[in-house]
Structures are given as C-alpha cells and as structure tokens.
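Q: Please design a sequence for this.
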C-alpha cells in the first residue's frame, strides 16, 4: 500500500498518521519539557490560576505521549488544544487588538504562540475524519445519524 493512499480501515493515509505522530511528539518535546521543568522546579507555592494553566499543559503534554501510540484515538486531545487556544485568542487577544493595546502588552507573546498553534492545529487535524467519526457517526443498522454519543 502506498504511503499516501488512504487506508480503508483507518480512513487516513499512513502519511497523515505519521504527521499526527510527529505533531504529538512536538507537543511532548516542546510543551512538555518546558512545562514539566517548571512544575518540578517551581521554587515557591503556586498561585491558583497559574497552577491550573500549568496543570492543564502538563496533562496535555503527558497525554500526548499516548498520541504517539494511538494517534487517532487521541484526536480529542488535539481538539481540546485547538479549542482552548481559539477561545483564548477570542477572549484575550482580540479585545486587546481591537482596542489597539495588544502590541507590547503581556499578551503579545502568547498571542503569537496561540495563533501559530491554531494554524498548525487547523493543518494537522484531519477535519474530514473528525467530522465523519465524531459528528456524523452513524449506525449502519439504523441508517441514521446518532448525535447523542
């Protein structure tokens, strides 16, 4: 079977699966190393909200290890990543940008990182597969959509 041909059992090509695995590895290496270093070496008691952020990023990077082994089963993790970045851009970056206060603000660096992340997520997530498997999931015996699962 060709590396780029869609595998009928998986619904994606082996190339696309490899891209997903690479993306999970990037999450583990880039996010995981930075976040877990901070978690393990944090010198003082955590403030509650920063602790939530680092706990979330720690969990995300740890669970991305499973994505290396099960790239399709862990797609919801990438959907969570895409969603939180997009929501942050909408509720934090956009109002600052609209008020012309984004440049040189504390949010400028995170805005750039989240914008890059959203674009990468848009490119890497197999949206057709997500749509078929999670939104239009049908039961052949009934021949109808089952949106309750």
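A: Design:
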């Amino acid at each position: 079977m060709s590396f780029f041909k869609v595998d009928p059992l998986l619904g994606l090509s082996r190339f696309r699966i490899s891209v997903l695995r690479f993306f999970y590895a990037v999450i583990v290496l880039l996010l995981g190393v930075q976040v877990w270093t901070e978690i393990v070496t944090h010198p003082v008691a955590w403030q509650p909200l920063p602790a939530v952020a680092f706990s979330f990023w720690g969990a995300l990077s740890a669970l991305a290890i499973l994505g290396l082994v099960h790239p399709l089963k862990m797609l919801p993790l990438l959907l969570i990543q895409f969603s939180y970045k997009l929501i942050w851009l909408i509720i934090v970056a956009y109002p600052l940008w609209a008020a012309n206060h984004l440049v040189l603000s504390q949010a400028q660096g995170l805005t750039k990182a989240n914008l890059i992340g959203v674009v990468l997520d848009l490119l890497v997530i197999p949206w057709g597969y997500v749509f078929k498997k999670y939104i239009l999931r049908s039961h052949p015996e009934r021949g109808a959509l089952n949106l309750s699962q």
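Q: Thanks. Anything notable?
A: The beta strands are 138-139, 144-145. Helices lie at 14-41, 48-69, 75-98, 108-124, 127-135.
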